[in-house]
Amino acid sequence: MLRFTTAGESHGRSLIAILEGLPAGLPVDQAAIDNELHRRQLGYGRGGRMKIEQDHADILTGVRHGLTLGSPLTLIIENKDWPNWTDVMASEPRELAPEKSRRLKRPRPGHADLPGGLKYDVRDLRNILERASARETTARVACGALAKQLLAVFGVEVRSHVIQLGGIPDTPLELNWDQIAAIPDDAPLHCADTQAQQRMIELIDETRKKGDTLGGIFEVVARGVVPGLGSHTSWDLKLDGLLAQAVMSIPAVKAVAIGAGAEASSLPGSEVHDEIAYNVDTREFIRETNRAGGLEGGITNGEQIRVRGHLKPLSTLRRALRSVDIDTKEEEAAAFERSDVTAVPAAGVIGESMVALVLAGAMREKFGGDSLGEMKRNFEGYREQLRGY
To answer: What is this structure's pTM?
Structure first.
């Protein structure tokens, strides 16, 4: 019932997003959308593109007088760098001198350049680069901001933080919600451990001088999620699978863990599974641990959702890796485009958006309703059912 799509290229005129499935009557906070876009641009180690773009989302359809209409909602985000690319990225036919065409024919290892060129049979790999760029995630974050606004109505909050970068600290951080919420908005890497964060900054500076890049791990946490979202009945309805796919779709993410993740595979069951208790005062089932990351059998169990994204080092290096010219087939250094040294904090913000969109979709599927009021009545009826279980 909730779905979105994006369109646009990294250096094209703009990015577009269409979000369908929001109930009618949801208040839309425009400033909150722009704030999420701003957060995506932050983080020590980002590149020059962040100095050019001042992202702002204009709502074109689906909202009237500050409330959703229940129809598709369209967002547009202009690329400020577009004036420098009007000829190179023009939709109309152009004849450009080779030195001005910015043709890409030396594919970058780790990018979609070469496999995309082979798939689509194009001789200018810019056709692939422009859409494969992480710039596209700007539109996702705008959609995620709206998903967060829907979730907030039902008491759900979503946050992220950096738990490891470039192998620092040796063991990824394990933090509770209050510790994550206490991270200052201006923390350079959005990491709760200030000493580890300073070591990360020093490593980023060293890595920048070497012309290299760094990866890391971010964690997305959602609290206030009711039990019963998702389903055990079919493989493609399992919510943990949907969350893993959503986070894995973020550029440079190469592994996703939910709860204890890979660590659980090396432990005995007694140290993995969360024992169940009952809180008589709140009339709900609880667990003292949350190694399952809030999901059992593809269904939320009422505990915090915890998803980790493992980000590889970014694929565009100033110290270019070896490649091959697709015309001459001779070995040459890979092409270089503007790049970051690391983007783990930004990936965390994108992760928040993807998790929020999946959770909002699961909420819409379970509670339905054409209007927000109807959805809230259905939700409250379900809450009463849970209290009587």
So the answer is: 0.96
